[in-house]
Amino acid sequence: MNLSIILPTYNECDAINALISEIYEMLEAHRFAFEIIVVDDNSPDGTFIKVSEKWKGNPRIRPILREKEKGLATAILHGIRKSEGDKVIIMDTDFNHPPKLIPLLVNITDYFEIASCSRYVIGGGMETSRFRFFGSKIFNKFIHYTLKMQTTDNLSGYYCFRKEVLDGLPVERIFFGYGDYYIRFLYVMQRLKHPIIEIPVVYKDRLGGLSKTNLKNEFFRYFNTVLRIKFGLWKLK
Ligand SMILES: Nc1nc2c(ncn2[C@@H]2O[C@H](COP(=O)(O)OP(=O)(O)O)[C@@H](O)[C@H]2O)c(=O)[nH]1
Ligand SMILES: [Mg+2]
Q1: Domains of the chain, with CATH numbers?
Q2: How far is residue 109's CA from residue 118's CA, in Å, rounded to a whole number?
């Protein structure tokens, strides 16, 4: 298997099947070996049932229901563990992250171990919220100066990597919490000197449903994450 696309969902019934269809048609046209794994945390809106019914009998679409555990980062880790691809793509399931970048992400990870989409390189941006665009930009500068990270968008969450980069790592130490996991992921990858390329992304409006990001809570969580890394209160091992 070449590629596993992992789609974490919580109340995404409006967009998820349209997103899967778009990805499916795009990759199938290229005769690419892929699977799409949906990790749903028992969404009250019935996301899991909608996906299961629509794609029943299609072995490429693998819906997974987590009945007890909740949380974005552990859902992603769960998907990674269940995946069979050599490469993995993680993305939002609401069309914030445009699926048309998938072929580029897959191709470019032949040359770089990790390809991370960035709103802050030339050609990147955000059609959704100017407040979030500039707030995130300033926070990324803070990350850059505090942790000496070279990546310009450490809160992206749209990326592709060769699964082997996680071999032998205590991945539970990275994949917990919410978007803060991505700061830890990129920090570890940069410290381990894995080649990372950033490619421009323009975030689109979400299709239906509501954002799960509570900006105030996440700001404090991300701030705390950066300081913990900086002062050695969080270590990989
Ligand atoms: N499985 C799972 N997915 C989640 C959880 N929280 C958020 N997500 C998914 O993570 C992605 C990012 O969340 P989203 O609401 O789009 O955040 P935003 O893009 O920052 O507004 C979406 O695909 C959500 O459905 C969770 O607790 N469990
Ligand atoms: Mg989103």
Answers
A1: 3-230 (3.90.550.10)
A2: 15
